[in-house]
Amino acid sequence: MDVSTTLWKSLASGWVAFLLPSLLVLIGGIIFFRWVSRSLQARTAGEDSLWFKLLAAIQMPGHLLIVTLAFRVGLEYADPAKVSRQWVLGGNLLLSFAGALVVGEIMFALLIDYYLRRRHETEVPSIFQQLLKVIVYGLLGLSFLSTTYRIDITPLLTTSAVFTMVIGLALQDVLGNLFSGISVHISPPFKIGDWIKVGGHFGRVTESNWRATTLRSPERDIIILPNNEIAKKDIVNMSQRPGLLYNDFVIGISYEASPDQVRRALLGACSQVKEICRNPAPRVFMDGFQDFSITYHIRYWFKDGHSPKSVRDQLTSRIWYRLKRDGITIPFPIREVNIHPEKDKKAEQIDRRLALLSQVDFLRDLERPNRVFLADRLKEFWYEAGETIVQKGSTGTDFFIIDRGRVAVFLDDEATSPVAELGSGQFFGEMSLLTGEPRTATVRAEEETLLLVLGQETMSHLLRDNPELATLLSRVLAERSARNQMVQASSEATSLSIDEVEAERRTSQASNLLLDRIRRFFRLM
After folding, report:
1. CA–CA separation, 19 and 14 (whole Å)
2. What CATH number should be reported for the domain whose range is 244-325?
3. Per residue in 129-177, pLDDT tens?
């Protein structure tokens, strides 16, 4: 080393003797850290390895070490007559400081990332890591200056009170964030990964350091909140149950609807959203009486992986359709005065319904007054695409005529392909209406569908006034059943043949049995 230094000094002089060695060391260091930087950006499968953590830790102090090393090497090869002792002392001090930073970062990476996090599975908040580094580096720096370089640090300590006051006044907001961050982490109301509401903001906690807490909203926006602002506001942690989030939905409902009816409607809408958990089940509360409505509060849970906005959007849509079907209104907070009455469309509506009733085989032979009676009392139910209209095995006495839209029929709740699709003018549920038997299939709306619903009460009123209609209905249904059996037999290419007399006998027998069931169900006997 001494020989190469002497030889270099004899060949080079002036600034060349200082700059050239410094540049060589600096270029070599830059090449090394460029390689380190590319390794970090590669994001390979080993990015969580201890080697990856060490490379990331020494990146910043490593650049400082290369710069100070280049400066110190340049002083070593420079002309001694042109280099003062203060330059050499300063170079040694900077080199020692940079080396201590590199060693310190390696030690912190080993202690925190390897020993605590990997061996003991203990997560240390970043604010405590940064605070610990500042304290340790400060103490080591003062000790190093006092023992190694014999620098008197007493003036630094004696003037610390004035310095602290000046720093406190100049950086009161920064220090407020620091101490607020410490208080938040001492008794943490949230942890990394939790969904929280604070100060009108909602998002997942992605980072919390000495200055601020970072949230990521459902729209993927980054929200950075200073710690002293968080400490002053109410914090709502939405992640009360591991892996689950909860959300609240508030809606105002008309006073005309009973609380029990509203609860059934709202819970039914929740059950139509597959992302909402069944356990814990959604809950509905009456929240208060307002000027125009009763406020209801819905709390529901869903898995952490789902978007809160998406789940809320689906629930809002289901609630609208369910309330529309049940005739429950969401009142406007205004008063409306209609000066010009709307055109009466009752006659047009009745005509359309009569046309649909004429396509129902067991109703089209009714006399016109009876069909008008039914058309006037049909109820309109709207269904959204994907909603279940009737469930296989459930009880119910409603009969459905499809006004607009399309439905799919499933014989098995788990089936993915329907056995039939029904469109405008077609119908289902007649046996449940006339005999009260359980549903034999599940029916779901394939698109937005308007159904005309005929209830048991209306049919019972019609049959009581016209008892002979029961005979007509049973005869039509028995004939339809016989035709279906004949079509099935012909499709299966059976060799059995039934003459007209036998077919008529079987139809008459089925009609009598069906008539007896209708009379018993409607208590016409």
Report:
1. 9
2. 3.30.70.100
3. 666 666 666 666 666 666 665 666 666 555 555 555 555 554 555 555 5
